[in-house]
Amino acid sequence: MSVEVSRRKFLQGSVALSVAGASAISATNLLSSEHTSENKSTNNRIPSTMTTQTSTGDAENVPFLCGICVNKCAGLARVENGIVTKLNPNPYFPKSRNMLCPRGNAGIQTLYDPDRLKYPMIRIGERGDGKYKRVTWDEAYEAILNGTDKFKGLKQILEEEEDNRATIAYCNGEGLSKEGFEVLVGEKIGSPNYVDEISICLETTLGGYVNTIGTYGEADLNNADYVVIAGANRAEAIITPDTMDMFKRTKGRGLKTIVLDPRFTNTAAKADRWYAINPGTDLAFVLALTYVVLKEELYDKEFASKHMEGFDDYKNHILSHNYTPEWAAKLTNISAKEIYKTAREFMAANSPIYYQGRRSVFSKNDFQLRRAMAIFQGLSGNLDKKGGIVYGEKLQLPKEDINAPMYGQAESRFDKEGIAIPSLKTGSWIVLRNMVLEGKNPYPLRVMLMRKHNPMSGVPNTKKTEAFLRKMDLNVMIDILPSDTTMFADVILPEASYLERTSPVASYGGLEPAIVQRKGAIKPLYETKTPEVIYKELAEKLSKPLWEITKKFDEDVQDDTEGMSEKEIEAYYEENGFNLADPWEKPVHEQNKERITEAFGEEAWAILDDKGVYYPNIDEYHKQLNPNEFQYYPEHKKNYTTQNEKLKVKCNLTNLTKKGVDSMPTWHDDYEFKVPAGKFRLVTGRHAQFTQSGTTNNLMLRDLIPTNYIWINNQMCDKMGIKFGDTVEVKSNIGKVTIMAYPTNKIAPNQIFMLHGFGGSSEHMEIASHNGANDALIIEDIIEPVYGAAVMHETNVEIRKV
Amino acid sequence: MARYGMALDYKNCINCKACEVACKEENGVELGAEKHRIWVGGNNPDGQWPLLDIASAAFMPSQCQHCDDAPCEEVCPTHATYYDENGVVRVNADKCILCSYCMNACPYDARYVDDRTMTVDKCTFCSDTRLARGETTTACQNTCPTKVRTFGDLDDPESEISELLRTREHFSLKSHLGTNPKLFYLT
Fold first, then answer.
1. Which of A47, A61, A96, B95 is the S-S candidate for A240 at Cβ 3.0 to 4.6 Å?
2. Band of pLDDT at residue A37, cut at 50, 70 and 90
3. CATH code, residues A121-201+418-584
4. Residue B21: which of A53, A243, A700 has the nearest Cβ?
5. Domain range A203-391+644-659, CATH class
6. What is the DSSP string of A219-237?
7. Which residues constitute the domain of residue B47?
8. Which of the four pLDDT bands, split at 50, 70 and 90, describes residue A23?
9. How open is the CA angle B39-B43-B48, to the nearest 5 degrees?
10. Contact between chains at A3 and B58 (C-beta distance less than 8 A)
11. B96: CATH
């Protein structure tokens, strides 16, 4: 074997890095005033060492759902004397199948991160300078309502805006308590201006698939025999069960794997073939595959005639546009021969999958790319069946009724400029922000209520995000760490981390559906509170004062309540949902119990509460097959086929034409990949050891990847005199960053890559602060035209050694 | 009494390093990039973009090979390194004088210095933690997303590892050195 087995790990040790070791952590700022260090702990609920050897004594194993990324793996937290000493995988959850990734394992370091937000705080300095004062929870709520000498409160702002609730905007990060924040600010307080991670993530992927085949679906990689995985890096951006299923069968073991990625990723390392596709040209590749399949009549004819709507239109469209492999070769950097081969192999396979992908929007054509991918999958007929893209089933939870009040003075959302199909629910981060900065908002937007979201890192063009936050009269942040965005909050509310809270139950559908419950492994540390308690208390604080404002300005309410007695008005307030706190009357655990008992019975609740996972017949179905594998459902109970006759693949969406969107995926000349001489195309991505900016302060993970580097083609580096570890400046039209160079043969000479999430500016995150580069400072804020989602791979940059 | 070994379906490895983190958290291993009992070795692909040699970019999970004839044990002047009753190569920290002979003798580079105790540390197959509690998997095996590892008793013909080694082709690292490792890489 010629494989490297040395413990000297790649990228490590070659360059001296100023990464603080565990013993070097010091208490230097207000936010971190209650610190743990290697040798002493001021709080007996905090472990005295960074890593703790698990004991042989008594321990509780509390079922939790991981909150380190969006995937939600199930785990069991080992708790010894009130301290979490280890996170283990939970073998009962079919989605995560008894695994935790490196980030999941390192979650303990986030729980006990010395830099965590520990107390409510109010800004006493200027925005961004990190000067805060520790206050009580009530003082913090009071400041949100009535402001301080540094900032205005909600009451004054809503008075001035005459109860136009749309003056409040809010943003939210992914998670099990996300919905509650939407209930609080959206439905109860009445703000329509909501933005979240969707418009900087997978909006076009979801939209493209749902509009074409009715679902995003689940790729049954356990049973597929051929997969094209393009722009999805499952070895590094781990998604379960896909990652686990895929790599057990690559390398000649049943799943032929074709990887398309501009750079050579860990996924490419497991592939049978890797195509170094030009960024943003996947659509040309899929159109050419489609051309071959239609021209050579390799598609599943029976499936096409039964299930594909507008098939003849699409066939004519593809053939008449001459989307030949020869045409695509020039655009994609993939030879015609390879395109022919892939198309033919795909259709000859028993169970081929063109993997849907996820992640960010690559290019302006992303919606059409996903449509073309979904239709191509349809051509194979490998939908709604074993080994294909399946629809699955979901265990339905009882619907929760929210008594949402109507606000007559509230305007509607406006972030629609340049968007064909504006999303009413999740909006567009870039369009909302930019319209406000350009003064295009039809009414003043003055308040930003934020939770677990870091747009300073996540939304392209950080300078604009900062300007937007500075423009607000009031910013509130609920989070666990003092992120770059938190530093622009006027009031900071510290949330309990995912290991300290019981979360609302969640249902995960698919081939093997299940319901899961996260239970708090330990009580909230410091003065943190669980999100639902924060929602409740904030709602209680705001409810009556805001109701007074509504009564003053809302003519509908005035008409309704005219002539009513005080008591009748109080009843009206309750009946019509103006009591903002009513969704949180019962604690989460109690609500979970009621909902599960109602839907599945008491026994189901007992199982869920004990194991963290429930699905019908779990006791009978769940079996350990060997030390590494479990059966969750017997083969004949898996939901391979659920659609049958209902299944439709919509090739031609004629109603899109009215909106100015192509009804069928079409290539346009401006999609071509172009990089001016002397410049580079910036591509970004993920790594198995990091989840965006959320984990860059995690010491354990920092040992694995000390910083983000810029990947530059090695031969280009030779020409430019750049060596490993050299500092280079990367400059785009909107900003510049400095970052260390990593010369590599794994990227094209006209492209560069950097990991997303590094380069934080918050001084209060000691490990993350100013380490590496923040790509959002240089990625231009370009949107795609269908939903207004951020396009991440269309920025050209210059680089120079500094 | 058992004779513990491990089989590694190394082609499953995606170099995510979940094993390394699980090991550190389970066993209280010191933090630090160079402080680890297990690791994943990876090669950069040979060739120039875009004609890269995919096969050259394999990932190789590694750790102490728990050799039956361990050079580290042989050279230890204080008998700090020893075989425990299950054939696991262990270090008695009380006896270790940090002469580092063992670190030089180990052909697998499987040992490092724990700066907290100033002794040599290495993989124990979770003997003090998971095995001591009666669990049957190591932390690295249990957490692995692609299930690379199978730990078990080589003397038990009924064990999963015995079954794997009977039915799958496998090799050992640096077998020419005659160390007789108890880690087996499945092909």
1. A96
2. very low
3. 3.40.50.740
4. A700
5. alpha beta
6. E-TTT-SEEEEES--TTTS
7. 4-186
8. very low
9. 160
10. yes
11. 3.30.70.20
